[in-house]
Amino acid sequence: MDWRAGDGVAAAASTRSSRSKKPPHSSDPNQSKKPRLTLSVPGRPLSADGEVAAAIQHLRAADPALATVIDAHDPPAFQCPHRPFHSLVRSILYQQLAFKAAASVYSRFLSLLGGEHNVLPEAVLALTTQDLRQIGVSPRKASYLHDLARKYASGILSDAAVVNMDDRSLAAMLTMVKGIGAWSVHMFMIFSLNRPDVLPAADLGVRKGVQHLYGLDAVPRPSQMEKLCEQWRPYRSVGAWYMWRLIESKAPPPPPAIPVGPPALTEHGDELMLQQQQHQQQQQQSVIQMIDPLQMLPGMG
What we know:
CATH architecture of the domain at 81-193: Orthogonal Bundle
Shape: globular
CATH topology of the domain at 81-193: Endonuclease III, domain 1
Number of strands: 0
Largest sheet: none
CATH superfamily of the domain at 81-193: Hypothetical protein, domain 2
Structural class: mainly alpha
Order of helices and strands: HHHHHHHHHHHHHHHH
Number of helices: 16
Distance between the termini: 15 Å
């Protein structure tokens, strides 16, 4: 059951025509080196009945290259079981950690609070930095959690405000929270709020996907992504999802198992083979790290 039921999301929905207007482009693509939060006003969430199907129909017609990727994968399913505050807390806990390590910290965090239903601002504020450190949360990350909880407790943020705010205003408010930057905002909007037209222009996985999709010589810069993905509007979130899937499909196959214990390297060829296996493992790990956004956030089909 989507947590949005009964939360008055209809008040936040705008007409699809208002989302499809093209903003003017800057004449200077290098005007700012900081990733731009080029976001639209929210429409129907992707978790709404028929919205993913509408997105796929639009993307197929708008971009023949993307249609090929769509045909190669099952459609996404967007659903988030958590309310915005809970999702933001989870996002902070998962930052800069490998998936398994982050899942372990998150599990201990829930146990410390007494369950998912207790992931509330006042409960987070009641935890000391030492409490959090004992379950593997760094002091810096603890300060991020406390800053988020304080902004909720003071009324600067609330779940209702987060749901109903337009994308640009929400981005400005969320980046006021310590530890939440443009990338975290994009992931939150796509996978927690299921907003349809968010382009994570700085995400390496999406950028590499666009490179493969259009056969580009180099990974496009964040400043180039807006123009390259313009035809995906008003469903750039779904286009980005398919870019993650595309780059995932390009991941090298797992290397052969390496025997436990040091091998007897009597020939140069054996040593070379081991080096190649190690290189394959490193490549595979780098791809896994790029697609971690797919694992980190709930509601991803």
